[in-house]
Amino acid sequence: MEDLTFHTEKKKKSLPFLLFLPKQIRSLGVLSVGINLLSILLSGLFYPNLQASIPLFYSQPDDQQLVNKEFIFLLPILATLIHVIHLSILRIAKDGNQTLLRMFMIVTLALELLIFVILIRCISIVS
Hints:
two-stranded antiparallel ribbon, membrane, mainly alpha, elongated, transmembrane, transmembrane helix, 2 strands
C-alpha cells in the first residue's frame, strides 16, 4: 500500500511587500501601513466638506496659520514619504540587529501616529 499523506498547512498570508521584514516586526509594519491608508482615506473623505482655508501651521501667528484646503493632503503625503523611506532602509538592513530594526519600526509607527493625530485635529477644528 502507498502512503497517501497530504500536507495541509496553510501559510499565513501577509502583504507581499512586507515579507522582507523579520517576523517579529511584520505586525508593526502592517499596522503602520493601515494607519497610513486610513490617513489617506480620511483626507479624501473630508476634503469636500472642508472650509476654503484650514489651520495647519499652529506655531505661526494667527493670520499665518491658515492655508488652502488642498494642503490637507500634505500630511498623508508626508506620512507616505516617511513610510517608503523607512521601509526602504529596513529592506536594506533586514539582516542587521533585530533590536535596532524593531526600534526603527516603532519610530516609523510613532511618526505615522503623530501625523494621523495632527490630521484628525485639523479636520475636527474645521468640520
